[in-house]
Specification:
The protein has 123 residues and is mainly α. It is built from four helices and no strands.
């Protein structure tokens, strides 16, 4: 009995938003024909800013991906300092631990800067 009530409530919650969707009205072809030249002028004026925002945003996304992989330096450095110490890897292990420890902070800073980069600010 309880399962039937749960399923009924779930179905109600899933179907409920469908009853409150706004009605969509299309433009008339004449209105679209009149507004098309204006829309093209607006697009031509905004295109350099859009391209610059896409470039800076893409560059920041690549930097964030590099930061994600830099986090893997931390366990590598720990292994190098413990197991690789007899083989001379202790110095590079400490360097990798430092890079791995800083990577999450760089990732957070790049994540906070990402929305600004999509608006064309190079941070």
């Amino acid at each position: 009995m309880k399962n039937k009530i749960k399923y009924a409530l779930l179905a109600l919650l899933l179907l409920l938003p469908g009853f409150f969707t706004p009605k969509v009205q299309a433009f008339e072809p004449v209105t679209m024909m009149l507004l098309a030249p204006v829309a093209l002028k607006v697009y031509e004026a905004a295109e350099p800013r859009l391209v610059r925002g896409a470039q800076y945003g893409g560059k920041k996304l690549v930097e964030m991906g590099v930061n994600v992989f830099e986090v893997l330096y931390l366990p590598l450095g720990v292994v190098e300092t413990t197991l690789g110490a007899p083989f001379g890897f202790m110095g590079s292990g400490f360097n990798h631990i430092g890079k791995g420890a800083l990577a999450p902070f760089k990732l957070v800073l790049n994540t906070l800067a990402l929305p600004f980069c999509f608006f064309g600010v190079d941070i």
